[in-house]
């Protein structure tokens, strides 16, 4: 008789195991976790994930929007109107998650596009503001995430859903980047309840996810492209207790970004750099002060420190100040004891922040591979620049030399 019920027993056991895995995910985030960002044009292979894990990483923030899909927008199909997940794209994503799981890495899924918000680099360089103008796209985004959570909730590699990378409802809504707190709060009061209300948008999407997946943690970026000072206007934390709050750290952007390499003379670090229309002296103390803003907001709203994440940080590897900047950011993160993921690991579409390449120009074969959409051919070598990150990840084993 037991054999007759064996399939049911096995199915029940599988469900219990999946639920236990999801329940344990908040425990994963109870201690500081260190990782890297994967924004590659090709789905990473197992050696890629193994190399990141060997450096000491425990998680990877995975964006898939550069991958070739069934239709215009990978997985979504068409960001102009969401009608359902694309099956072949979903299979590609799941296979990639399987490879990360085999390499013992947790994964945070981080879409760059949502319905009504096609990623700028996939939109001919134009910022897509439709999501922040028309409420129908918030409902489509919620439907997309409900569908995706239903498919991924039991995958053992998935550690969180990062609802959208670097949202910017403020950009075309009349709020300047890095505005003072009073200006931010006044702007939010005007927008509250409307399509540019970022906390309300997140609440809508989270509600949809929780209809099919009550347990998997959810990660939300602050506004104005994840700026560290853009949680400040939020009047409260989100109601869901399984939310992680993420900010990105590239300030002072005028110094860390590609355009500084062509400036004559470039901004130096430490040094005086304009941010938000005001010139400030940027050094280790200013870095720590800047990143204290989201931590102060969290404390004021009873968000535990272990729910805070620096989801991206970095600088142009060929910039003279990059090593000193990375060291000061990492030191501040260590002091705060929060999660972080550097940008980026072995990116096969852009070399600007691929620190394993050191501070030298990449050979022509790198760019030829991009044009031909073939795998990145470069062999990475440990170097002093990447060693800064490696040391802060406290690896258990030495990293391998290798390709993606």
From TrEMBL:
CC per GO annotation: cell surface; extracellular region
Keyword Hydrolase found: yes
GO annotation terms (biological process): cellulose catabolic process
Top-rank taxon, per record: Bacteria
InterPro entries documented for this protein: GH, Glyco_hydro_5, Glycosyl_hydrolase_5
Domain Glycoside hydrolase family: 44-346
GO MF, one annotated term: beta-glucosidase activity
Annotated signal sequence range: 1-22
Keyword hit for Chaperone: no
Keywords assigned by UniProt, alphabetized: Carbohydrate metabolism, Cellulose degradation, Glycosidase, Hydrolase, Polysaccharide degradation, Signal
Sequence similarity: Belongs to the glycosyl hydrolase 5 (cellulase A) family.
Protein name as catalogued: Glycoside hydrolase family 5 domain-containing protein
Species per Swiss-Prot/TrEMBL record: Silvimonas terrae
